[in-house]
Design brief:
By secondary structure, this protein is of the alpha/beta class. 40% of the residues lie in helices and 15% in strands. Helix 9 packs across helix 11 and helix 12 crosses helix 13. It binds nicotinamide-adenine-dinucleotide. The site of nicotinamide-adenine-dinucleotide has 27 residues, from helix 5 and helix 11.
């Protein structure tokens, strides 16, 4: 039995820590929820929830007597039996993991640690962090012995923004303590949230499992995008190709092609995996290639926009972004590392002059610090670069006839997800649907040309020593 009188603190109230605090309170714990951003704490105290997550607002409201919001981590640590660390682990400019948020939490926990406390690391970590980084730091600062005086476990967060409050109770959970006692204690707490629990032998296994969750998706996206690029160049419709391969053939499930692996997790976790592998001198050619492919998918769009600007004598661009959030389904208001953010950064880096930037998103309220427009119509007014970048249902099935008169001509329209129903593009407008190659006339088809010049030798004449 778990003792629900135990008090829990959660350090870091972002997209993971805030829903986790709400779920723990809902499970019966008294929660001290801590963030070092005083604006966030003031908001939460006033009942203002600064991030979108279905069900979160309601749970926080119903649990308001069971959650205390504070900035004082020392108080929280001193008054808790269980401490969750859910701060960000972003990348530095050189793409190494940035542990500054984690370091500050570990320092605070180490300096205030008491016997019997259980610490959960929830943030995504590079291999070895729990045992060889966090544990020695906590032991050194506290003078206590991990696994005996205090307990430490890594339990990665696997939920997806937009459905955290549901997934937190149903997704399979991975738990790894630094010793059996730590694992056993961690499992008892995790059971309160629900979902199947797998205890793995070491925290490094759990750290690797978490990285693979996101690496698998990032690599699958890169694969679909490479296929889409080949199809586009070969004059094929990638959608027709991919949907046919997947249809009724359960062994293959190629992802939908489109944009790079965007959003905070798919951008950074392959890099954290690569960093982990390098620590052990292991090579990662497949991951290296997929990171490159995902960057290329974004770079292709940046070049398209740059070319459009140059073809129009450097005309300053009036850009309209439909879908600045990093994904459309499940919907989120999170624009960190979104395709839109990456494209705008890339254009600035390439000295492409942007005259105006307007965005519309059904969920995100701001983009690059500016409020988004209230409607598609408001955002596209007189724009000469119009980008549809997520598959949010409210951005799909848009009738091009209804918007074409509102945008400038000449203009460039980027349709990443097949958002638009297009019958005819007016002269002067350029429409780009990722993965849709234009039919190549037979006389220009490189395959036809190469067949003509191919040396049709008999099989027997092939060099049997041919090497690749
Ligand atoms: N966002 C996701 O969908 C997701 C999914 C799975 C795993 N994760 C992982 O979970 C972790 C948290 O991600 P996130 O998206 O919630 O991050 P986030 O940036 O949204 O939230 C981090 C919060 O921690 C606060 N913070 C920073 N330093 C602090 C400190 N010393 N004390 C108290 N608060 C502090 C920040 O103010 C911020 O509110 C990351 O490691 C991430 O990789 C995220």
């Amino acid at each position: 039995m778990v003792d629900l009188k135990q008090r829990v603190s959660v350090l870091g109230l972002g997209y993971i820590g805030l829903p986790l605090s709400a779920a723990l309170a809902n499970a019966g714990y008294k929660v001290i929820a801590v963030d070092n951003d005083s604006k966030k704490i003031e908001d939460l105290k006033r009942g203002v929830v600064y991030l979108y997550e279905p069900g979160l607002r309601e749970t926080l409201a119903s649990q308001k007597d069971n959650i205390e919001f504070i900035t004082d981590d020392k108080y929280a640590i001193g008054n808790s039996d269980i401490i969750f660390v859910a701060v960000g682990t972003p990348l530095k400019d050189n793409l190494d993991p940035d542990y500054s948020q984690l370091n500050s939490c570990l320092k605070s926990i180490g300096e205030n640690l008491r016997k019997g406390q259980l610490i959960f690391l929830k943030s995504t970590l590079f291999l070895g962090t729990t045992e060889f980084y966090a544990l020695p730091m906590l032991e050194m600062l506290s003078g206590l012995k991990g696994g005996e005086d205090f307990y430490l476990a890594f339990c990665p967060e696997r939920t997806s923004e937009g459905q955290v409050m549901h997934e937190i109770h149903v997704l399979p959970k991975i738990v790894a303590g630094i010793n059996k006692e730590s694992s056993d204690r961690a499992v008892k707490v995790m059971k309160k949230l629900g979902g199947q629990i797998t205890t793995v032998s070491t925290p490094r296994i759990a750290e690797m499992c978490k990285l693979l969750d996101n690496l698998y998706r990032a690599t699958s996206i890169a694969f679909a995008n490479e296929v889409a690029e080949v199809c586009e160049k070969a004059g094929l419709n990638a959608e027709e190709v991919i949907s046919t391969v997947n249809k009724g053939y359960l062994r293959t499930k190629i992802y939908k092609h489109g944009l790079g692996a965007d959003g905070p997790c798919l951008t950074k976790d392959p890099e954290i995996y690569r960093y982990s592998a390098a620590l052990y001198n292991a090579k990662t050619p497949l991951t290296d290639g997929s990171i490159e492919q995902n960057k290329k998918s974004t770079a292709n769009l940046i070049s398209l926009i740059k070319d459009f600007s140059l073809q129009n004598y450097g005309t300053p661009l009036n850009i309209a972004v439909m879908g600045p959030a990093f994904k459309g389904m499940p919907e989120t208001d999170d624009t960190r590392y979104s395709t839109a953010e990456k494209i705008i950064a890339g254009l600035k880096l390439n000295n492409v002059k942007i005259n105006s930037l307007r965005a519309f998103d059904p969920r995100a309220e701001t983009f690059l610090g500016e409020p988004v427009k209230k409607s598609i119509t408001e955002a596209i007014e007189n724009a000469n670069v119009i980008m549809f970048l997520t598959n949010h249902p409210k951005l799909m099935n848009i009738d091009f006839e209804h918007i074409k008169d509102k945008i400038s001509n000449p203009s460039l329209i980027i349709d990443a997800w097949g958002n638009l129903n297009v019958e005819k593009i007016p002269e002067g407008m350029k429409y780009h649907r990722i993965g849709h190659g234009q039919p190549i006339p037979k006389e220009k088809d490189p395959a036809v040309l190469s067949y003509k010049i191919m040396d049709w030798r008999a099989d027997s004449e092939y060099d049997s020593n041919f090497k690749i």
